[in-house]
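Weekly modeling sync, notes
Attendees: S.R. (lead), two postdocs, one rotation student

Agenda item 3: backlog of single-chain predictions. S.R. asked that every request posted to the team notebook include the full sequence so nobody has to chase files. The rotation student volunteered to paste the first one in as an example of the format we agreed on. Action items at the bottom.

Example entry:
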Amino acid sequence: MMWRRMGLVLCLFMTVSGDANPLRAAENAPQDVADTPAQKRMAKILTGRSEPARLKLLVQLQTHRDLFSANVDVIIDATRQLLAQHAGDVSAAESGESHPHTNIDAAPVPESLSLLLKLLGSSPRDEAHAVLIETLDHPDPHVAMVAMDTIGEFEIEAAVNDLAMQIKRPAFEDQYAFRFALVRAFARLRCPQSIEWLQRLSDHLQGQLHHEIATRLANVDLRDFDGDRKSYANYREQHRDGELIGPLGLRAKPITPVQPASAITRNGLGKLQLQDAPSESQGKLRLTKGKYYGIDLDAGRLLFIIDRSGSMREPAYHETRLQSAKRELIGALEKLTPETEFAIMLFDTEVQSWRNELLPATEENRRKAIQFVKQITWGNRTNTHGVLSEALQFDDQLEAVFMLTDGHPTAGAILQPKAIIRDIVGRNRMRHLKFNTIGIGVNPTTSDFLKTLANETGGEYRRVD
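Predicted structure, as returned to the notebook:
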């Protein structure tokens, strides 16, 4: 078995570097020595400048779990070095200024760094999990989000208190994606403490996140209490009347507009406490009760996208497709509550926004928006990729997108539907927007494209014939 493992090490480095000669001595090196020639070569590749070589090595480590397990210490050290290096890159990139409402990465998270964190999450060793817990405090909130996702995916319960500390970060206020990642991490852990924090956050977060938390809490079961039937019965009894927020008997706090939503302190027992606070960043948001093409408007911050290309002239019963779309959008706008924030975007060959920011759905704003919708006319081609890209960058507080279209992409940087899916879904992994899609009079190919986009982002799809 030892010889087979060392053979894998040798073959691995031959694959990555194309030159096995410097590593022949590793064949006879003891397996329990951390600085063997093979391990030094591995560390050099993992911390080197070549991202392709690093990715190639990581694929091999994912495939050969025994090789990964035998070199966890090397991988831990390399990961910490790369995390420090990326922190420096972020610091350098932040010397420039960016618009406060746009989702622009100062320094994109390298794919290899994300893969390394996922690898460590899959390890049973506490030392590997400790790296993920440390990474929660990385200066780049996107890296912290990768750590959150990994902690949730592998149900690393030891991180629950450190997850709670993320509420203090400015990114919790500034970025919906950060809040979403944190809520999802808590939701995927199965322990009483994570349920307690979800209930605390439920009283402070509204819109889409309130809906996500409510869905998770509705499915609490015995697994969340490690099979402890007494604790689970106690939770059910406490939660029955909605007065207590968890198995520890902590009462829910009323929301008051005197502190930021991220205000948390430590009590005498060293536990984190969420103080009374307004929900979300701009005020208390309530779940909207309206629907749009039968899709619930659960989110508190919405972007409606309307296709105004030439094909929207086609008939839809007694009116054109565009007239039908305008009528449906006006009906949805009329039902928005003042606490909801919304925006409208149009696209044909070009992309046009009604306003460049989310606005509260006050009576005046809804009236102006409806007037804008009534004046929408036909354009030219269909730049689907362009409008989806604009949606990703529109506002860091945006929660959900509702895109209506009637045809396949005919303009823009990317025209192939599958390529659009890869690009948008890939970029959305750090954004967590829900793309709800509506296809009006679409062919089967476009219908599949819209359905896939919705499914891959947690949204819903509706076809209108």
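Discussion: group reviewed the output briefly. The first strand starts at residue 264 and ends at 266.
Action items: rotation student to repeat for the remaining queue; S.R. to check formatting next week.
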